[in-house]
Write a structure and sequence with these properties.
CATH superfamily of the largest domain: Glycogen Phosphorylase B
CATH class of the largest domain: Alpha Beta
CATH architecture of the largest domain: 3-Layer(aba) Sandwich
Shape: globular
Structural class: alpha/beta
Number of helices: 27
Number of strands: 13
CATH topology of the largest domain: Rossmann fold
Length: 580
């Protein structure tokens, strides 16, 4: 707003609004018809009647296209933060700028959190990433993920409006609900959700009954433990937060350590620092080495660091607090956003090369290479930069290793394949497919492993599993003239195009594979995800009987496929009844 931009905000939660009625019956120009202006000057979609229409006469695609036309000849920048928006960009001109703001690891939302997401959101993200003129990423692991699909990447971690947290509290201003809580206070603000380590919180609370643990925020499918020294104060307004932060001795970020949290740079962390509050966090790769904070790798270490801040003498504590403030200044939103604004306005803006950024990550991670989380990050980095021997050195073949639970065996399998160790690569692939969410791929993988052309097919499959989809497509394009009648190759190629959201081409290739399938079973040609895609596309085309036959066949393959087949059948029957 400060730079004179005209901002319109649309949320996917409004996707079922009855736009058709507003378009027909609304008054005034396009903006007046659909939007209302907030006090801050942002235009948000009016509250419209909710109405689900499979094929609306006026859709979000139409609205975006008409907004583009309305503001012409001015440039329109589409800043998109959710992958599913890609479904509504089909009528948008490529002459205007598209920026994807990548904020989350959506694979974790699909596989680790029970929030109702499916693999479709992953495919939509890949397609969106390939279309974007620029991708901003809020974490370094997201940079690596997006580097597979786009060369224009800008690392934009979360930041802080320092003026809102520094020198904003007058002496004597103490909220009533924290005034009488015993000091010292260990503080947390934000959502209590699946990514918060409740066991760690319980450990801290039980270990230090003389400390008060104060939580401000809201609970999302997670519950804080009951304890006399734990105080949950509920939601607070943004402008109230400095009042609470001032009463604390130390702030905490007690997140679980997994792929989901490895892809975050918590907003609260920078706000803590800005308020002169030292912070203890669990292991979050983007926060390594930031002054004013301590990063713990175990529960015991976390408690030790909390104790250190609580018991620190005043001189040392004030020095730590000043370090926290200095760090927060490096993450001032004005400074972080300035390069992005330069890009939007066509000014000089040089992005660091992908290899430069990723090699810096590799250097930063060396001190933590014994951690499985960091090993997985390094596997992806080494494989993306062609350093397969380095991946192998992290998981040496002849070393008697314990059985790590969270190793990305797909990445290790690719590295050993590229080093010519085919049989060992296959053994690692089989370990990877034992993980519950991938068991539906076992039957398909076996057909590739035992195929006479297994070397080519295996390489494509491993690249696919490691999300190196464009590399696999480049290799496939070279092979296509000679392999276009090979059903397994066509099935794999169909799956690759599905992975990047090119659904029409994926469906055409799947039909080509079915034309030459004679002598093979369906599950030998397509993996489960490709077959489910075919079924859903046939359902959209109202070819319900064929879709039903395939789903019923799936249920006979094995128990894992049976469970999936039941779900697909229910979708077919629902759509058949709904569209009558």
């Amino acid at each position: 707003m400060k730079r004179g931009y005209h901002i319109l905000y649309l949320s996917l939660s409004e996707i079922n609004c009855n736009l058709s009625q507003a378009y027909r019956n609304g008054h005034g120009n396009l903006i007046d018809r659909f939007f209302e202006r907030t006090e801050e000057g942002i235009h948000i979609l009016k509250k419209l009647e909710k109405k689900y229409e499979p094929n609306p006469k006026y859709s979000f695609s139409d609205l975006l296209h008409h907004l583009e036309t309305y503001f012409s000849p001015k440039n329109v920048i589409f800043l998109v933060a959710h992958p599913d928006w890609v479904q509504y960009l089909d009528k948008v001109s490529r002459e205007n700028m598209l920026i994807y703001d990548c904020l989350d690891n959506w694979e974790s939302f699909v596989y680790e959190l029970d929030l109702g997401y499916t693999e479709t959101i992953i495919q939509n993200e890949r397609k969106l990433a390939g279309m974007a003129d620029l991708i901003t990423v809020s974490a370094r692991s997201l940079y690596v993920k997006m580097a597979r699909y786009n060369n224009n990447l800008y690392y934009l971690p979360n930041g802080v409006w320092n003026e809102n947290f520094q020198n904003t509290v007058h002496p004597g201003q103490v909220p009533d609900d924290i005034r009488n809580i015993k000091r010292p206070i260990v503080f947390f603000m934000g959502g209590i959700a699946g990514w918060v380590d409740i066991d760690l919180i319980k450990y801290l609370v039980d270990a230090r009954p003389e400390y008060s643990f104060v939580f401000v925020g809201f609970e999302i499918e997670a519950k804080l433990p009951d304890a006399p020294n734990l105080h949950f104060l509920g939601r607070k307004n943004y402008e109230e937060l400095p009042l609470y932060l001032r009463e604390a001795k130390v702030a905490i970020v007690p997140f679980k350590v997994n792929k989901l949290t490895a892809a975050v740079t918590p907003l609260k962390f920078y706000e803590y620092l800005s308020a002169s509050l030292p912070v203890v966090t669990t292991f979050l790769p983007d926060l390594i080495g930031l002054p004013g904070s301590k990063m713990a790798q175990t529960y015991e270490e976390f408690l030790k660091y909390v104790d250190e801040y609580v018991l620190m003498d005043n001189v040392q504590y004030h020095w730590e607090a000043s370090q926290a403030v200095q760090t927060s200044k490096c993450f001032e939103w004005d400074n972080l956003l300035r390069p992005l604004c330069s890009f939007i306005e066509g000014e000089n803006f040089t992005l660091p090369s992908k290899s430069q950024f990723m090699n810096k990550m590799i250097d930063d991670y060396q001190a933590f290479r014994d951690m499985e989380l960091i090993q997985n990050e390094l596997f992806a980095l080494y494989n993306m930069t062609g350093q397969y021997q380095m991946s192998c050195s992290l998981f040496e073949k002849h070393v008697n290793q314990k059985e790590p639970r969270n190793i990305d065996y797909n990445q290790v399998a690719l590295a050993y394949f590229k080093q010519g160790e085919i049989e060992y690569s296959i053994s690692l692939l089989k370990k990877y497919l034992k993980i519950s969410q991938y068991r539906v791929l076992e039957k398909y993988a076996e057909s590739i492993i035992h195929d006479e052309n297994r070397v080519i097919l295996l390489e494509l499959f491993l690249l696919k599993l490691c999300d190196l989809t464009y590399e696999a497509l480049k290799l496939s394009d070279e092979l296509y003239p000679a392999w276009k009648t090979n059903p397994k190759f066509l099935g794999l190629l169909s799956g690759l195009y599905m992975d990047v959201g090119e659904y029409d081409l994926a469906f055409r290739l799947s039909m080509e594979a079915l034309d030459v399938i004679e002598g093979y079973a369906l599950e030998e040609i397509f993996d489960y995800y490709s077959i489910s895609f075919i079924i859903r596309d046939l359902t959209k085309l109202k070819k319900y009987d064929i879709a039903e036959q395939i789903a019923l066949y799936l249920m006979s393959v094995n128990r894992d496929w049976e469970d999936k087949g039941v779900k697909l059948l229910s979708e077919i029957y629902f759509m058949r009844e709904f569209t009558r």
